[in-house]
Fold these 4 entries.
Entry 1:
Amino acid sequence: MDPLSALTVLARLGERCPNNLVYLAQALEGRPHLFADCLAVAEGGWPRELDSTVARIVSGWPSAQACAFHNRLPEHTTSLRETGLAVTAACWQILEARGDTTPDSDRFRAEIGNNLVARLSELGRYDAAVERAAGLIDYFRPRADSSREQTHYLARSLSSQGMALGGAGLVQEAVTAYHEAAGLLRRLADQADSDTDLDLGLVLNNLAGQCLAAGQTDAAVTAVLESVAIHRRYRDRAPGPEREPRRNRANLAAALGALANALVADGQFAAAYEAAQEAAAILAVVKEDRPARFTDQWAMALVNLAMTEQRLDHLDDAVAHLRTAAGEYQRMADAYPDAFLADCAKVHRNLVIGLLRLGDRHEALNAAATAFDCAAHLSPREPPPAVGPAEEALSLYLQLEPYKHLGRTGLQRLDTMVATLLGRTAARRLVLIDTLIKTGRALKEADRAQEALVLIRAAADAARPLADQAEGGDAPTLLCSALVQCLSIQTGSPQPEAVREIAEQALHRLEILARGDEGDRANASLLLNNLANALSWFDLPEQAGSAARLAVGLLRDLADQDRERFEPQLAVALNTLARRRQALGLTNEALTSARESCSRLAPFAQASPDRYGDWMAEMADFERRLAAPK
């Protein structure tokens, strides 16, 4: 039996009967390094139910042995990151149970505590990571002045807090944490401690990333330039490139990559290209020695280099580097899907854009399909706040490939894409529905109305069951939007019975939406106005008038609460109502609505002629024509 199978059997015996844990414990205690190596081989296949078993065994070890074991755990896949978190948490419980405050225990506390923050952050559990980092800071801050080691522990904890805060979207708070960590490390680095110097460089890299996220480009460039200088100084102190630690060369490459990103944001594309080129060259050498450790960093460096090359219009070089990076990520994703599928999808998306700029539509289409295949297999546990990589890849694919050119194989692949996303959680399906509507709108604007209609109808069919649920989220709004889009796409065509049915569905659904909160009412008013305009193309004047009246009624109430936001929309809706009344032969009522629309929009047109001037001119002309003697 191979080692992994043997360990799995022992662990499952322990799960069934606690008395049997002694056998697994003996295996772990006897050769813990072999167990960690087995985990490395087992990436992607480790049984998750065994995490608690391993954690219970590790929790009985001395802290030094537990720390040594947990440091060997690989982090290539989500499943093993969960194992790492379980073991790290067990090690933390050892420290908490001992309650020591000796220098040795504080060293373990800093190491295990900050690793615990990192493990939590890697799994997206940012709130728990922020809380854990705050506890470490509260512990080490009063001790920071007692020794340089304690100051270093505080700096590491602040850096971990910055990572967790950045992951949680609290960018400015992350910048503040990194700034304090950098200040402490800068003070220690003045004492010629090279290890502390390198820690400062890494913190400055992270600080630069958060500064960019906060829109502080100058601060990002300043921070990462200091980081690059630190890593260059350390390299220059080394005996020679052949003896220079690989890790520091990789750190220098990371700093140069961060510098390239900051310089791109600052508009310094030529300088960004030089930094990205040097980073890629360094990692190309480093990864030859340890491909399993550094290939992903080299591939990402190629992506960054390609982004700078695109800025300089070196399109052939950019696409060549993206092709290489995409191939590497595809191989890594095949081996470690949980770790690399997301990046693989992003790289293929960038490749699509580069290929389109070169005019290679066929390869771009295949790259878009690959991006979808990668992204569609990502874990759907956490619903995305916006369009996710799979939905974005589907949108690219749909916009690239006209339905009439798909063929049977292409249609089957498209059906598989949509079915894959429809099989996800409700939140994911809402993202897909939104993507289908937006893509349909783009296809319509590209004069591909029939293809657009297929997508919009698919969106409506997917949204309908979700909209009927008590907690359907945005599904009611998306369904109404899809129904209105269905009608607007078909304007000018003979009115089939299906159009009347869709119109009745849309009006009914919008009446329900109009009874919701302020956001629902605002969405309903906009869609009702669009519905009224769409119905004007068909022989449905009564339904068009009803939609226009409902829109005006909603917007009157909304404008009473927020004039600046809703008064111009009310003016537009009144103009639509005037036109619908004219179509019904209600000339006097139409003129009344037209005059009110002009009087309400006039102050806004005077204040912002660029924004409202054209609307004002068109509405005033309509009013004059209505008022002219017949």
Note: DSSP finds 29 helices and no strands in the chain.
Entry 2:
Amino acid sequence: MSSAVEGESAIGQVAKSDGLTWRPAYQQPFQLLGFKWFEENGRVYCRLPVDPGVPVRKPVMALAHHTAGGQVRFRTDSRRVIVRAELAGFGNMDHMARTGQDGFDLYVGPPGREQFVGVTRIRGSKIEQGLFHRSTRELRSFRLNFPLYCGVRSVEIGLDQGARLLPPEPLEDDRCIVVYGTSITQGGCASRPGTAWTNILSRRLNREVVNLGFSGNGKGERELAVLINRISRKRMVVLDYEANAGDGIRTTLGPFIQTLRAADPSLPIVVISKIRYAREVLDPKALRAREALRDFERKLVDGLRKKGDRFIWFLDGTGLLGPEWWEGTVDGTHPTDYGMWQIAEHTAPFIRKLLLQLRVDEAPGSVIRLWPGGNPGGWRNPEPETVVRSGGVTRIHNVNDPTLTRYIPDRSTANGSAVVICPGGGYRILAWDLEGEEIARRLCAEGYQAFILKYRLPRPELDSVRYAAALQDAQRALRLVRAHATEWGVEKVGIMGFSAGAHLSAVTAAQWRTPTYPAVDSTDTQSCRPDFVGLIYPAFLVKDQKTGELAGEVSISEEMPPVFLVQTEDDNIHVENSLFFYRALKDHGVPAQLHTYEQGPHGYGLRAGDKAVGAWIDLFEAWLARQ
């Protein structure tokens, strides 16, 4: 962008006011971000309500008048952009640049391609400085960032008289991300406002990020959670306050989350543990203390998820400063610009993935009947289908009308592959959310079209082969996806399953040449051979665990598609299921990847917590990308 900026001597210098039109930064079509109580506060630039209505400690209220995270977005064809502001005091920190404490900086460019062009330089409480100058007019997008560590009494933006001023390009979503935390959240020690990690996050995600970082005072008080609840149109809340709370986080984190949950049971919440401090290099005690609090936070989040809270996640702060983490701070604690960039580099993809997953969650999949004319052979279940929720799992009993539930990825991530997902349940029930919906949302967020197969279960005393009806459903499902491949943008389609669903997936891959029902329509001219197979803690694959003889229905040939297997040694469905099946695959030259772990034990889906087996989904997605 430097090549696009002319008049270098005018940038950052005292501006000439002739030929300018001045407008307050809050006046439309300017878009003011980061001050959720601005009008309520009487147009005071404060990050909390001036009259909060709940007890808020004086240091927190004082810091709330610092304008960290404040932004103004707009478009104009003005050749000049001038900032005129009055500050409420000055920063006095000796380890942070004045341009970061008290300065405004300006970015130019459309969302996703914004670049820095200028920053104000402090000569007193009153500022009037040019941040952008060009010799020709062109409609451009701008973002002005407010100071991180001082108050702002007023701010105006000067543009050429007669220049067009238009609203900014739309944000990705009008709902904001709220980040509650410490001095690192507030922006210490960024050299200018745009390099604070929350502002970098805002640019990368093209979203409003509300900065509620309070230097030295992110203690996790319940009152702050109450105030966060009062912010409307929240997309997510990020809690990153361990560095100030210390051991106090053990008593505050749970109640803080509970207060947020009381107002919105489905509010997405991310808990981030503390970054590494430089003293850990020589202080093992400091390292152990941080790891203990990290493990506490992870365990608390895992416990909430096991109790059914699907909208909370944990991000380990250990690696946020990158591989050379000791170089990422000014004073061993507060990040440099490099450290801020590293934090954003690691948090942005994590949050973006969650947002894509949530988008899928909010747009539940369309349901497609497999057999519009009725089940093959007039198959009927004498018992009604029921859905039971217990122990944090939704279970479907007595399936009579088999379906595919389709989840469609965002266009920006769609990769042309589709996965048919077979939930497990011992051919007695289907673990619909644990091994269906949660898997579909995760894969969909990664760009895969996901189809959850609600397959028929054996009727007691009527079906001698427990997988017979389910195999018909699985074959039909693969054919149906292929029949719509052009319409749906599908190039490859595979199948994956869990426990009994993994057995069904293996049978489908082994018997794809064997017709199991009379053709119904043109859909059945399609092949039902999957392009890949995922078997997650599979059951029923081995007939004899001592000899390794496989079950007859999964007899392997060289035509078997590539297979991915995961199982744990403490699984009550013995790990030999995977070991002997993998050996047979290799004996027949079938590409296969096997991952075994010490602890699981069975039926964990994506809820393995901090057990090593929880990494299976990342390994599976990496494997899928190569198929």
Note: The first strand starts at residue 20 and ends at 24.
Entry 3:
Amino acid sequence: MALDPSKYSDHIIILGRVSDDIAQAALREYGAENVIQSRFGTYPNGEANFELFVDGKLDDHPLEQHFSDDEKAEFESRISNGAYITIIHSMSGAGHVDRVNFQKKVRKIFANAANIIRLISNSDIDALRKALPRVLRMSNATSRAYSLKSGIWKLKQDGAGVISVIAPKWAFDRQDRRFRSKDGRDQYNSVTAGEFPDELRLAHPNGEAGADRFTVFDVHSNDSYNLIRKAATLDLPKIRALQQPIARLITKLKRPGDEQTRASLLQQITLQSNRLLKDISIGRHGNVPVAQDQLDALRIQIAEEKYPDRDGWDDLSIEEHVSVVYSIMEHPEYGIKNDVFPDAEDAFEHVALSGLFARDIVKRFGKEGLETFLSTPKFSFGSPDGLNKLEDVAVARARDTRDQVYTYLGRQKYGDAFDLDKLLEGHDQKTFNMFFVEKQRMSPDQTQVLSSGGIAGEIAFVIDDIAASGGTQINAAIDLKNRGTKQVHAYVCHAELIDDDEAALEKMLSKQYDDNGRHEYLFDSITITDTVPSAREKYEALPENLKKRVNFISVKDEVLRAIAHDHERAAELGYLHTQKRQFQPTYTADVKFNCT
């Protein structure tokens, strides 16, 4: 996308589906002149829609704006004159599809998933419900997610310059696990998990680009992290455009034809792919120029990694040859880059909520002091699984929460000179005061504990990213109680809290544990955030006797910090003429959670 810095003037914040706390915080910080209400969602018939000026028609939206026609015209003028836009929107995944519209919606949503289409064709609705319960629950998020894409396209068509997306709850984040197909290729168990980040970056058929930058909160796994980061860092519209001529030639090659025609097509494909490599090497597509020997070495390296059973580059088939070229195009260092934010640190940001959890734990339990926290086995931290994968994001999240608790307490006692690594010298830092659980998923909504390890402790903090039915957290808590833990406190980043039979949060809070005839609640407290906007509604619906054990934390400070980062980077890069806004978040996390 060719940018003219002289035309960028305003930073407009568009609020989609967010909690009241987040919306009101943005409004207070940036004012009604910069924050507008929108709708990214669905009509009753399931059709996705994007509406920029809602005028109070959206009952559950925290902003009640009633713009006049003149005010609407002013906003539209600012957008068409090159506004920098930050969209804040969360996809909850909570919502069920009625039987009548289910088949039509799934066909539309997963139009490229041939196996699902066949299942719909050959099965009745009840069988499909049983086979794909997660699809039912993700349908609401799916429609919102794809209406977000259409909204981005519409804004770009109307003249918006740069669009960044802040998603406290990323769509399809839990449907990202890779599996190995029979032909040896990596595939994902949801077509949307891999394609949604690409879809937001992809150009509209008329050539308008998609989103330029992503900020996401506590992703589910390394796979999620890498999928979003890759989409944000690469110029996907450009890559798709460059791939099209070669793709068309390969399609022709697969059709029946004489040897002369095939030889001609092979020659054209080779010429096209070599031309792409040359263009990449000289920096023609926005990347840093690459020396030919570096490019040749990279080509050989990728070929060996992708096809270890082949005897070098010359032994590759034409499709494999082209696949290597495409991999070079998408290489994070040498490949095509995002024109607006060429550096990964600018194009993509991952916000960890472990700092919020750590601060809350220190506030509630910090009176025990640093020495008490470090005395085994008083306190322990862990996730509902991870014993068989100690490098998993879930374990890293729990470990990071532990480290930040110690850092907060240590700095309170010793000041900024406190050194966590020095404190933990002589301990296995990966397992110190940690518990581990190995679980097996029986179905999309059912898990069971297979084995346990680590230190259960007298007081355990179960740190998890998503609570849907609550079953995983319940199984982990039962395991901890069986191992002698006196108190279990759950901390959940994204409280989807959906369940077919009963309210998931109420089920978790009502669950009791039988301790030699003495019944007690399984969870002493459950802490949830407002990354999923409906979480507070579900909290409010609880019986009064259960509410007192729910601890509610808003992520508004982290959202405001992300907006401020957007604004300052846009100003530094010359996309804004307005003076930078100075914003200090309520707290600054001491340890950054990194997926690797």
Note: Residues 426 and 432 are 10 Å apart (CA to CA).
Entry 4:
Amino acid sequence: MSTRQSIERGERGERGDGLTPIELYDTTLRDGAQAEEVSYSVEDKLRITEKLDELGIPCIEGGWPGANPKDVLYFKEVRKLKLDRSNVVAFGATHRAGVEADQDPTLRALLDAETEIVTIFGKSWDFHVTQALGTSLDRNLQLIDGTIAFLRKHGRRVFYDAEHFFDGCKTNPDYAMRTLNAAEAAGAERLILCDTNGGTMPWHVREMIVAVQAVIRAPLGIHAHNDSGVGVANSLTAAELGVTQVQGTINGLGERCGNADLCAIIPNLQIKMKRRCLDDAQLARLKEVSRFVWEITNLQPPTHQPYVGESAFAHKGGVHVHAIRKSPLTYEHIKPELVGNRQRVLISDSSGKSNLLQKAADYHVVIDPGNPSLAALLDQLKTLEGQGYQFEGAEGSFELLMKKAVGGYRRFFELIGFRVIVEKRREGEEAVSEATIQLKVGDVIEHTAAEGRGPVSALDHALRKALEKFYPELQEVRLLDYKVRVLAAGRGTASRVRVLIESGDAEHKWGTVGVSENIIEASWQALADSIEYKLLRDHAHESGAEGRAARVVVQGATQGAAEQRARRNGKRPSSGGGGGVNRRKPSEKRGGRRERSEG
């Protein structure tokens, strides 16, 4: 065999013709949530689930339904999502040693999750069986068999995670193999070999997988942690040997040093090893999904992350720049567009309209490539991103920005001013927040106030209270999540902050963003974008001059709303135009002084 033939065989993998697809299994929502500084809300997990489905991930591990109320609620809510490509998987452990499977409440919780697939982990390392689990080696085999058989009896497909398999193989390979035999005999569809401590080297992974393949017929998988910095390498080694399933997390999130990073594994499998995971269009969304998860997780994306980082295809050195202008292949190992990234020349950024058009298409904004406003919009985007704006996870703000630049935008209200007051009356009591806001809708000025659990909540309530009589559909809108990130260190309380807000109604969810040195101002930007996005979407079918529909609504709504407020307050209706300010009684104790709105 020639050297070239040997190389080509190695690129394809030792098993098959290189065309056998790999089953991707994502555990961002479970293993990834165990990373330091990561805490997902249920809404976070649902949004990430939808994004992973768009990417085309076959298996999404949603969490451990028997472990906490949040995961129980997630599995209830995820059933309402319309997933096209993904199976949501429930995760749990073998039943407790002191009870039988049908008596274990954690297994009942797995059934209640109503997922087609359940992943069960069991002990493969004898040290863990006796020390951590506190039972005998034979009883551990019974736990594996009984748990899988119980779930299979109730119609579930079962994947078996052989926890600490590689460490177990090092000390007691015969027993580690017996645990796999027990899982296979009980009916597990996949046996996933786990490097739980992340300390196994790729050459040891190779040796042990070859040994397993000699005696196990069930399809194998790999679950690698990154404590030795070889999580991706171990996953690729396993894929080269013919494993069926590769597990990991988006961006390598996970406990301690993290899990194997799917954002590196996927392109390596598909582009380098010719092991198909996704279709080309899905692969081109990899960077988008990576940034989305970073934003939802509220962590700063690593600039130098392979494939999907901002610097992955960035060139600064003069020799490099000169060469890539002749051919990008001189200093780029793949075309960045394959994974949704772009080439960047740091001294003179040459990327432009094509990236903008692609981003517009992702958010379903139709732009004519010949539109003269594109260049100005591109400059504006670069300026905003330089100020700290990020539109991954803020698709509502991005669509508004695009439509303002190229057409399709309509203004539904104008801010005249707002004031937010936070008052703490005595030690030991919670602070009270009140927002007063003055808006102009069509020809009508509306001035109102509301309280909230915090200053942003109060501002949100006041904004929607002022607008709901003109746009009743805003009663459907809920503020689902609120995140703040400090963008620049070293300036203390004067640091610039980015606020990311998630809002939703009965049918949709959307994100919006604001940036300022003032957290209330940044919050206002995101809140206003959230309301505008909702109105623009709901009124997209309307045409005519700006504000026309608003004025029609105002004519029939203002007087009736004023009369209703007057009746509730036991007063005669006012003859004046516009809405009054609904004040809380504590404000009157400050002398009844009428507060003036200010921006």
Note: The longest strand covers residues 414-423.
